[in-house]
Amino acid sequence: METFNDVINSGQLVLVDFFATWCQPCKMMHPILEQVKEVLGDRVRIIKVDVDKYGDTASQFRIQSVPTLMLFRQGEVLWRTSGVVQKADLLVTIDSFLKE
Fold first, then answer.
1. How far apart, in Å, are the Cα atoms of 76 and each of 13, 17, 49?
2. What is the C-alpha separation between 61 and 48, in angstroms, rounded?
3. Model confidence pLDDT, tens digit, residues 79-88
4. What is the pTM of this model?
5. Which of 25, 81, 94, 100 has its CA 20 to 30 A from that of 18?
6. Looking at the annotation, which residues are catalytic?
């Protein structure tokens, strides 16, 4: 079974959404992330991590508010932000890392 570390340590660009089921802004991010996935397809992998279920992982990355979005490639944190990010802004951000 693939672990969180397997995913973020891969060569692929990975967007991680740290969320909580009770968080209203997190619920707003869900359709935005689906739209981003539709645009970018396999060029980015998007995974969601429930901070209540995976508290150790959330602690490891010092998640203090949700939603927190992080971009990884080969285990390295390339970008991080908290709060709702609009589709256009997220696409611009991800695109800048796809060109590297």
1. 10, 16, 17
2. 14
3. 999 999 999 9
4. 0.96
5. 100
6. 23, 26
